[in-house]
Amino acid sequence: MNPKKVDKIWTGILYAVSGLIVLILASLIGYILFRGVPHISWKFLTTPAKSFQAGGGIGIQLFNSFYLLIITMLISIPISLGAGIYLAEYARKNWFTDVIRTSIEILSSLPSVVVGLFGFLVFVVKAEMGFSIISGALALTFFNLPLLTRNVEESLNAVHFTQREAGLALGLSRWETVLRVVVPEALPGILTGVILGAGRIFGEAAALIYTAGQSAPALDFTNWNPLSISSPLNIFRQAETLAVHIWKVNSEGNMPDGPQVSAGASAVLIIAVLLFNILARFIGKRIHKRITSA
């Protein structure tokens, strides 16, 4: 058979398979949005959930999701940035760094439920933090840290070696070259990875069931004392997130409008994750364009 015809046939097959996968994913997302968007309203997004009555919302769960996300990123970003810089700029090629990279690969492939059980044993039981925001944040740090570290390392490695040579030629030290030349050049890739990691954390449920808890106590949004039990900023309180709330409503929910609440919460979760992905692409392109035009 003519090689050109074979190439066209296999190219057509690849396009067909890719189109089928995209169609399946788009249909799934469209189905969730079609069922859930009509139930989304300002009242639904701001009012607390109800256990045995209809008309509850997801206000506290939504706040818990964003608050836990912020705490997790505040812990994981500095650690992953330092680890990525070390592996990309300072680590020598030997058995020790090979073990580190292999460990990162293994940790990045762990199921989230395993990370949740690890967090339950270490932070909830052994450290006696109980079901709390800080327990969930630390567990999600172990869940997200390998991916962020690998993203930082790959973004730094993508910077051409001539950029480093130029910095050293200008009289900068190695650390100053990394800080002032390499990291700004790799910033679009790093920020994209951070935002995508944030979307992954926002939609996580299994790890938080065993660490952050499955209840959402009433919060006093006029009390911002982090030591107060009813304060939204208290990191030692239980915090049912949006993803955990969806799982709980579908598994053991007692409210009469459970299917509507689940559909609306699922749509909000999908929209939030989509916004994280769109934001990652937008910010990455803008920063890359600004750097290249400077």
Question: What are the SSEs and their pairings?
Answer:
Layout: H1 3-36, H2 42-46, H3 59-90, H4 95-108, H5 112-126, H6 133-157, H7 161-169, H8 174-202, H9 206-209, H10 242-252, H11 258-293
Helix pairs in contact: 1-11, 3-6, 3-8, 4-6, 5-6, 6-8, 7-8, 8-11, 10-11
Structure description:
With about 290 residues, this protein is mainly alpha-helical. It folds into 2 domains: about 40 residues; about 250 residues, MetI-like fold (Orthogonal Bundle), CATH 1.10.3720. It is built from 11 helices and no strands. It is globular and about 65 Å long. The mean pLDDT is about 85.
Sequence of secondary-structure elements? HHHHHHHHHHH
The amount of beta strand, in percent, is under 5%
| CATH architecture designation of the largest domain | Orthogonal Bundle
Give helix % range: over 70%
- Helical segment count: 11
Predict the CATH topology of the largest domain: MetI-like fold
Could you say how many structural domains there are in total? Answer: 2
Q: Low-confidence stretches at least 5 residues in length (pLDDT < 50)?
A: none
Measure the end-to-end span: 52 Å
Major sheet attributes: none
Output the radius of gyration: 23 Å
Name of the CATH class of the largest domain: Mainly Alpha
Helix-strand makeup class:
mainly alpha
What's the pLDDT, averaged over the residues?
A: 87
CATH-assigned homologous superfamily of the largest domain: MetI-like
InterPro entries: MetI-like (IPR000515), MetI-like_sf (IPR035906), Phosphate_PstA (IPR005672)
Domain ABC transmembrane type-1: 62-280
GO molecular function: phosphate transmembrane transporter activity
Subcellular location: Cell membrane
